[in-house]
């Protein structure tokens, strides 16, 4: 074809608002980094690519404990990739302080009617939204029906207004153990801040950070010491086992070894599919005279400010979080409740949440998310907080004195936070 004809053809296409086929079919590839296994991201990526044929998503899975180091290295050097990454919600303030998350407030507008309020709060820093919540969480009290029956114990209530106290759980766990249970009680994420914070918070001790200064620790008050003493005593009395990692705890309950297990709703399917396991669900315990508190928070997805594909990255995270079907596709892979309100209702309507032995658990989960859910501390020093306090809890679990351990952890936190920019 003569060159002049080609020029005229291209001009004609341009005038008609069209592009040559090669340009129309150009594909943008998004780089996405997160801690989930690749198979977990396949449903949402496939659904997004089907709805957006000119965008592909390449997912890179990295271990959670390496995620922050990888992000620090790549984003800290100004790398344009990853375009999108998974942000652990309590770490968002620290990521924002380092310039690692794009402010998307104006791009997404008001999402208050679409996503759970606690999830929005966990993704917001100084009134600006820096990531979109993908999932949420809560904790339930599972119990082994056979072990309680053998011990002559009445199952704890599913009604949040009739929730059992921690003091009663310790007493009943002892009774169950005396009647043959190998272990009386077990926490899912043993010694992790997410799991254990509701204990001091129930007693009025706060979340471990001073209310008037996000870089001042508050883990040595009477409530924190009392809660830590209680926690350590469960292991000292051998109601709960030492030396068991969080990855192993659900199997203890599934194997019929534990009378009471505090864990997330994502274990419902595992327990329901375990042959011979008879179990029920109750509301998360609280301390007598204290307030009911449950942990919440999960994952959000944010955008690298250096991305060369901001528009496409925004499309992707909006699809996975604000679009009901996209949120459900995401939940298929990671099994954690979606933060999208409409998707959450569909999620809670699954057979596993409506089985005869757990009737009412969907209502309980909604209640906890709306009334007792408390996010982890909002501080740029959360990474240090999680590490130092988590190690202190593990030391207390292994027999260390609660008071001296928390005092030492507080001093270590003060030193670590003093090195951060205020």
Summarize the structure.
This protein has 422 residues and is α/β, with parallel strands linked by helices. 45% of the residues lie in helices and 13% in strands.
Keywords:
422 residues, alpha/beta, D-Maltodextrin-Binding Protein, domain 2, 2 domains, 5-stranded mixed beta sheet, 4-stranded mixed beta sheet, 20 helices, 45% helix
Word description of this protein:
The chain is of the alpha/beta class. It has two domains: 26-136 and 297-348, 3-Layer(aba) Sandwich (D-Maltodextrin-Binding Protein, domain 2); 140-295 and 360-418, 3-Layer(aba) Sandwich (D-Maltodextrin-Binding Protein, domain 2), CATH 3.40.190. It is built from 20 helices and 13 strands. It has helices at residues 3-15, 21-24, 38-51, 64-76, 92-97, 105-108, 117-122, 145-151, 166-178, 193-196, 198-202, 222-236, 249-254, 268-272, 310-321, 324-334, 341-348, 361-371, 382-397, 402-418, and strands at residues 28-34, 55-61, 84-88, 124-125, 128-129, 132-133, 140-144, 183-187, 258-263, 279-282, 294-295, 299-303, 373-374. The strands form four sheets. A five-stranded mixed β-sheet has the order 2-1-3-12-6. It has a four-stranded mixed β-sheet with strand order 8-9-7-10. Strands 4-5 form a two-stranded antiparallel ribbon. Strand 4 (124-125) and strand 5 (128-129) form a beta hairpin. Helix 3 (38-51) packs antiparallel against helix 16 (324-334), helix 16 packs across helix 17 and helix 19 runs antiparallel to helix 20. Mean pLDDT is 93; it is low at 1-24.
């Amino acid at each position: 074809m003569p060159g002049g004809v080609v020029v005229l053809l291209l001009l004609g296409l341009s005038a008609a608002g069209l592009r040559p086929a090669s340009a129309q079919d150009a594909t943008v590839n998004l780089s996405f980094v997160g801690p989930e296994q690749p198979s977990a991201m396949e449903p949402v990526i496939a659904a997004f690519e089907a709805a957006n044929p000119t965008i592909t998503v390449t997912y890179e899975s990295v271990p959670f404990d390496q995620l922050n180091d990888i992000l620090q290295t790549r984003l800290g050097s100004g790398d344009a990739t990853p375009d999108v990454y998974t942000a652990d919600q309590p770490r968002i303030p620290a990521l924002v302080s380092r310039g690692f998350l794009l402010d998307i407030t104006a791009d997404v507008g008001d999402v208050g009617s679409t996503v759970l309020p606690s999830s929005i709060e966990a993704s917001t820093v100084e009134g600006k939204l820096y990531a979109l919540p993908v999932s949420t969480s809560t904790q339930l009290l599972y119990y082994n029906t056979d072990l309680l029956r053998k011990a002559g114990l009445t199952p704890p209530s599913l009604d949040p207004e009739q929730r059992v106290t921690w003091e009663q759980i310790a007493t009943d766990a002892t009774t169950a153990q005396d009647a043959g249970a190998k272990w009386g009680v077990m926490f899912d994420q043993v010694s992790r801040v997410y799991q254990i914070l509701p204990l001091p918070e129930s007693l009025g001790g706060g979340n471990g950070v001073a209310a008037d200064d996000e870089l001042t620790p508050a883990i040595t008050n009477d409530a924190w010491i009392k809660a830590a003493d209680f926690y350590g005593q469960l292991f000292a009395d051998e109601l709960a086992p030492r030396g068991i990692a969080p990855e192993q705890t659900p199997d203890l309950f599934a194997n019929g070894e534990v009378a009471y297990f505090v864990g997330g709703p994502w274990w419902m399917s595992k327990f329901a599919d375990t042959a011979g396991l008879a179990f029920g669900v109750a509301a998360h315990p609280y301390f007598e005279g204290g307030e009911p508190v449950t942990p919440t928070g999960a994952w959000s997805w944010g955008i690298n400010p250096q991305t060369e594909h901001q528009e496409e990255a925004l499309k992707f995270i909006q699809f996975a979080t604000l679009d009901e079907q996209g949120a459900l596709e995401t939940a298929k892979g990671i099994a954690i409740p979606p933060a999208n309100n409409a998707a959450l209702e569909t999620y809670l309507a699954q057979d596993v949440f409506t089985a005869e032995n757990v009737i009412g658990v969907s209502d309980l989960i909604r209640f906890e998310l709306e009334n007792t859910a408390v996010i982890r501390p909002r501080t740029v020093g959360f990474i240090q907080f999680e590490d130092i306090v988590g190690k202190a809890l593990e030391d207390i679990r292994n027999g260390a004195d609660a008071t001296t351990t928390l005092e030492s952890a507080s001093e270590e936190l003060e030193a670590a936070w003093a090195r951060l920019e205020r």
